[in-house]
Specification:
CATH class of the largest domain: Alpha Beta
Radius of gyration: 24 Å
Number of strands: 14
Strand order of the largest sheet: 3-2-1-4-5-6
CATH superfamily of the largest domain: NAD(P)-binding Rossmann-like Domain
Largest sheet: 6 strands, parallel
Number of domains: 3
Strand content: 5-15%
CATH topology of the largest domain: Rossmann fold
Structural class: alpha/beta
Helix content: 40-55%
Bound molecules: nicotinamide-adenine-dinucleotide
Distance between the termini: 54 Å
Number of helices: 18
Shape: elongated
Length: about 475
């Protein structure tokens, strides 16, 4: 059992803390948002993530998971300290690292000599940030030493310090690859675990911590689905700090690029009379390409892809290194968000005064996350063009209302209510519920039964039978 503190109770930190406590470690999750900590202490999960409530409940019940605002005390109790705070994008495209700066210097100020600490950076940060976090922790330590002078060492070998020595620590990069909506399964059954470290003690401790996942030897939680073979082991990659940091950005950039590629080909399919679903299937069967992330639609969104691709471009710019492929993947994605509006114009001609229903708001299904959600770009654009917008999302209506109080959306509680008096429906988020709609009933409610399927998930023939004019993407 390792004493762990996870700083940041967001999608990454809370899931990481809950999973590590499920594996038998004693975990304390820290957040500076007191309302969030209070909610967690009362058993309330601050965002929608399937299975997380059950997982947290089980580990809190076993006294392995706790929550606090007191970062210093949590650091003192812990040997492994995870940084999992946000790194949102600045208008320039660079990540805002202020949360990491604040946390790293607070950790420095809280370190003592009880044992050597491993500071694990799970936040997505630009290449070189590991050394920079070490510097910030040292600065925090130095500030404390001005009050209590001791010799400063960032020792790389000793596992334990004595009372006469300076606190020792090692910074490790452990990029996170979980996806919202399947975050717990992604944490327990990952494709790989990456550790960036120049310190064998730290790398060995991280390996021991993740051993149950690497060997898949833990008892599998019943409430989490998985598709990993029981005999499989999870690759554990130890590399240098800079490579680990680049692995995270490069992985996200490649996934975003795959989607943009499928979308670019989808546009050509429409013009040439081909079907992107057939084309994606045909190319995805090539093992060198793979079948995932070739779905054409209205493009990617969420808190990671746009932010990480832009951050990678900005990192390259520091080295005066052009990145035309990364830039193209962003511009294709921006163009793609407007494709639905173009199709609406083709069908309805005039959008002013039309009523349009958005099916889905979150950037993808099984989450209530609206960060960089295509729905918001589309809604804002249509409102600017004079349309009246209704919206229905199975879980995100309240979050959207709270986060966008000035956005004039009329929120509905079902697809049927949404469709009432609509000139068109736009399927924006591929919630499973939308695959099981009674389209005959929906068509009767609409002014004109037009649907634009921005995720290519609906059955064109079934919709035609229900009287719909159906338009997909690239088909
Ligand atoms: N969300 C994802 O799907 C995902 C996946 C992989 C990696 N990441 C990366 O992980 C990091 C965290 O992402 P997230 O989505 O969990 O962020 P988030 O915004 O959901 O959570 C961040 C949390 O940190 C807390 N926080 C901020 N400053 C703090 C401080 N000084 N002390 C204590 N707590 C503080 C905030 O209150 C918030 O609860 C980011 O760098 C992100 O890029 C996210």
């Amino acid at each position: 059992m390792v004493d762990i503190c996870v700083i940041g109770a967001g999608y990454v930190g809370l899931v990481t803390g809950a999973c590590l406590s499920y594996l038998g470690n004693k975990v304390i999750v820290v957040d500076s948002n007191s309302a969030r900590i209070s909610e967690l202490k009362h058993g309330k999960i601050p965002f929608f993530e399937p299975g997380l409530a059950e997982l947290v409940k089980s580990t809190v019940g076993n006294k392995l998971l706790d929550f606090t605002e007191d970062l210093a005390n949590a650091v003192k109790q812990s040997q492994v300290i995870y940084i999992a705070v946000g790194t949102p994008p600045l208008p320039s495209g660079e990540p805002d690292l202020s949360q990491v700066i604040s946390v790293a210097s607070q950790i420095g100020g809280a370190l003592d000599t009880r044992c050597k600490r491993i500071i694990v950076n799970k936040s997505t940060v630009p290449v070189g940030s590991g050394n920079w976090v070490e510097m910030l922790v040292n600065q925090g330590l130095l500030q404390k030493q001005e009050k209590q002078p001791v010799a400063l060492t960032t020792g790389k070998s000793a596992a334990n310090s004595t009372a006469n020595e300076a606190p020792t620590f090692s910074v490790v990069s452990n990029p996170e690859f979980l996806r919202e909506g399947s975050a717990i399964a992604d944490s327990f059954y990952p494709d790989r675990i990456v550790i960036g470290s120049n310190d064998s003690f730290a790398a060995d401790l991280m390996k021991a911590l993740y051993q149950p996942i690497i060997e898949q030897s833990f008892s599998r939680p019943s409430f989490v689905s998985h598709n990993i073979e029981s005999s499989a082991t999870v690759p554990f990659v130890v590399t240098d700090l800079a490579s680990a940091e680049l692995i995270k950005y490069a992985a996200n950039a490649f996934l975003a690029l795959k989607i943009s590629f499928a979308n670019e080909i989808a546009g050509l399919c429409e013009r040439a009379g081909a079907d992107i679903r057939e084309v994606s299937k045909g190319i995805g069967l090539d093992k060198r390409i793979g079948q995932y992330f070739l779905n054409a639609g209205i493009g990617w969104g969420g808190s990671c892809f746009g932010k990480d691709v832009r951050a990678l471009i900005e990192s390259a710019r520091e080295y005066n290194y052009p990145t035309p492929i990364l830039e193209a993947s962003i511009s294709v994605n921006e163009r793609q968000r407007k494709v639905l509006i173009g199709k609406l114009q083709e069908e309805l001609k005039i959008l002013k005064g039309r009523t349009i229903g958005l099916m889905g708001l979150s950037f993808k299904p099984d989450t209530d996350d609206l960060r960089d959600a295509p729905s918001l770009t589309i809604a804002n654009q249509l409102i600017k063009m004079g349309a009246f917008i209704k919206a229905y999302d199975p879980v995100s209506n309240d979050v959207c209302r709270a986060q966008n109080p000035d956005l004039p959306l009329t929120y509905c509680s079902s697809v049927l209510e949404l469709s009432k008096n609509c000139d068109a429906l736009l399927l924006v988020t591929e919630w499973d519920e939308f695959r099981h709609v009674n389209w005959h009933d929906v068509a009767k409610e609409m002014r004109s039964p037009l649907i634009i399927d921005g995720r290519n998930i609906l059955n064109k023939e079934e919709l035609a039978k229900a009287g719909f004019n159906y338009r997909g993407i690239g088909r």
